[in-house]
UniProtKB/TrEMBL annotation:
InterPro entries xrefs: NUDIX_hydrolase-like_dom_sf, NUDIX_hydrolase_dom, NUDT19
Family annotation (PROSITE patterns): NUDIX (PS51462)
Residues in the signal sequence: none
UniProt source species: Aequoribacter fuscus
Name the record gives this protein: NUDIX hydrolase
Listed CDD domains: NUDIX_AcylCoAdiphos_Nudt19
Statement: the UniProt record of this protein carries the keyword Lipid biosynthesis: no
Entry keyword set: Hydrolase, Magnesium, Manganese, Metal-binding
Source superkingdom: Bacteria
TM annotation in the entry: none
GO MF annotation list: hydrolase activity, acting on acid anhydrides, in phosphorus-containing anhydrides; metal ion binding
Cofactor(s) the protein requires to work: Mg(2+); Mn(2+)
Keyword Hydrolase appears in the UniProt entry: yes
Length: 239
């Protein structure tokens, strides 16, 4: 059996597809098959592993290869054609040590200007819906929309804006946040701590000081940011 701490980290690309709706920005959410080994039943953005062909076709530029992979997955999972040149990186996540599967994931945002019909594959993806950001959070807090921290934090960052154009303009001028969360158990659940959190290096969730984390209790995610230095990149903001 492989040592989980030394598992190979697979490159991956994911894209949050957003559009302008009647009640503000909407994001496309896809529900993963409950039978899958990874993130079963979670609501996610289109995405998947980077293939060797993606890397070769992009002259070994992993960021560009991740864009190609994200767009390929968008077509395969939900039938939407997305141009890689329209993707803007918002963050980069590396799965914490100790997890059974580890990914190095480039997370992008792309604005859809037309309202093409979503056609899910009924394989990896079993459901899809466009939701306003506020509705996505309400449904998550009600236990109806399970999410992983990268999905949740991306929606939090997008929620700061009133328009898709505002999100795109901010991303063009921003620096993507690069993070490898440190996961630790807390009372009743789990915390993913990010750089700047007082407990990040010591893996002590009770360490005195700043907070930069997501806490997951009963499957519900809550963002905790307090006392963080202004110079520290935040995952719930685009800047």
């Amino acid at each position: 059996m492989s040592d989980a701490k030394n598992l190979a980290i697979k490159p991956a690309g994911t894209v949050a597809l957003i559009r302008q709706g009647d009640s503000g920005i909407e994001a496309l959410m896809l529900r993963r098959n409950r039978a899958l080994a990874f993130a079963a039943g979670a609501w996610v953005f289109p995405g998947g592993s980077v293939d060797a062909e993606d890397i070769a076709g992009c002259q070994n530029d992993l960021t560009e290869a991740a864009k190609v992979a994200a767009c390929r997955e968008a077509m395969e999972e939900c039938g939407l054609a997305v141009d890689p040149s329209h993707l803007y990186q918002i963050s980069h996540w590396t799965t914490p040590k100790g997890e059974s599967r580890r990914f190095s994931t480039w997370l992008f945002v792309a604005a859809l200007r037309d309202h093409s019909e979503v056609q899910i594959d009924h394989g990896e993806i079993h459901d899809a819906c466009w939701l306003s950001i506020s509705d996505a959070f309400l449904r998550h807090q009600a236990g109806e929309l399970p999410m992983l921290p990268p999905t949740y934090m991306t929606l939090k960052a997008i929620s700061e804006f009133d328009s898709v154009d505002g999100v795109v303009a901010a991303l063009k001028a921003s620096t993507p946040v690069v993070v490898e969360p440190h996961g630790v158990p807390i009372e009743g659940g789990f915390a993913a701590m990010y750089p700047g959190d007082a407990g990040y290096d010591s893996l002590n969730p009770d360490a005195v000081g700043a907070r930069h984390r997501t806490e997951i209790v009963g499957g519900i995610i809550n963002t905790v940011v307090d006392g963080l230095s202004d110079s520290e990149p935040r995952l719930d903001k685009i800047r």
